[in-house]
User: Fold this.
Amino acid sequence: MHTLDTVEVDGVELAYRVWGTAGDPPVLLLHGLGEGGVDWLTIAPRLAPGRRVYALDLRGHGASDWPGEYALELLRDEVAGFLAALGLTSVTLIGHSYGGVVAYLLAQRFPRLVARLVIEDAPPLLPQDPPLAVPPRPQGRMAFDWAVKTQFTAQRNAPDPRWTEDLSAITAPTLVIGGGPTSHIPQELLVGMAERIPDCRLVTIDAGHLVHERCPEEFLTAVGAFLEDGM
Assistant:
């Protein structure tokens, strides 16, 4: 069982789901672009024994507000504000894809907030040549604001170089999980990322980009071993 709650951070209402016992070591899960906290429904209960697990709907997604502005710096700072609003420090932070980017930016900027970091198939952002194009918005209702896709694509095309340079500033022990050769993410970028982060290990699970969805047992085994190693 889990609960769905909301909290306001700087005027933006954020929705989140919670599993586990209050007061247990906190884990925060950040979803990929276009997804939401529901993306973790098969994973979160398995992580919850002995932990308090939070799955956040990032701004512009799911039941959280869709304010129209989605710069990665905003998301990074808003997640820090979310943790402050809930009185959480020293969390285990797990992010997939887009959420993984937000996670490593948070770990760079606010190291005291992150005790351990798991990055699932999320590469460092490098300038794109030729630039990535934004496809037309699909018809009908969507589970996220299409402006997220538009603005993220712009930042992927011309990212702040410090986002890659400052991977070396991450102090949290880090696990990078790659999806292997069937992922659309170039896996050599994850190798380079793992070399930049001071205390980092790289595990490859041949599942494609959606590692925790397609191979949940292998994902949980890798994450469980990483977390137990730090206890």
